[in-house]
Amino acid sequence: VSGSVGISLYPGDGVEAETLMRNADTAMYHAKDSGRGKLQFFTQHMNVAAQQRLTLENALRRALEKREFELHYQPLFDLRDRTVTGFEALLRWKGPDGELVPPAQFIAAAEDSGLIVPIGEWVLREALSQAKRWQGAARPVMLSVNVSANQLSRPTFVQRLRELVREAAIDPGLLELEVTEGVIIEGAGEAREALDQVAALGIGIAIDDFGTGYSGLAYLKRLPIDTVKIDQSFVRDITIDPDDAAIVTAIVAMAASLGVDVVAEGVETPAQLEALRRLECHRAQGFLLSPPLTAEAAARLVGDAPVTQHPSRGEEQLA
Questions:
Q1: Does the predicted TM-score (pTM) go above 0.90?
Q2: 200 FRET partner, CA 20 to 30 A, in 14, 62, 135, 224?
């Protein structure tokens, strides 16, 4: 057991016991956020940061109530023939002024406040509804949805997921949940049990940002993983850093031997694309291939391009 210590000093940080304790508590949480097992003196900047976070959390609650969230869809391509193999659903927040708020500015606040749970359920419901519309308009495509540790650790998550898939009336084999290695680490046994139950529904599982966490090989062996997504940090310098090229080569070879699919993330240049082809990484996504699209634009892409249908994992598993 380790301790995190927050310190406030009289009279600079407060003249009343209540104020001193509140500021020491704020400092303690900063100590935890910076890695735990540390001590942190209070500064006025912490109050400003805490107030900004509270304001952001309140804005997120209003956004959920007023339906300010929307999904964009980034296509995944087969590099051998440039066919669309699926889409990744990405959360976007359009503020009252009509401007999109970058996810980096609000996802952490949603996680810390627990709002990621209702927001995550909205994402699943909306993504499944969109998948149903595509299923009726054209040949069905695979849809990937990111899931947080907070969602996965909830005892009711799998049952709720089952209900949402039934309500949408789509083949569960066309849905894939993306989790990071960090989610598995944080959730430990609970996360692994939930993933086993998700796989039993016939829903695919992908490890996002693969290679940046811990014990990646062990997870591939122990968990029902269908896809690994190579983190963009390895793709970015694949043409100039031999180590990155070696890592991508190893991941592709390892996944092939285990019967796991591979997707390269963050492809932004023709040189990166050609390097991935040479290394026999057959699927990729990134701004070079296509930026995230609105639902309408994604529907046009599905209608205008040949689509590779993912083999169904079986609707009967939802019975």
A1: no
A2: 135
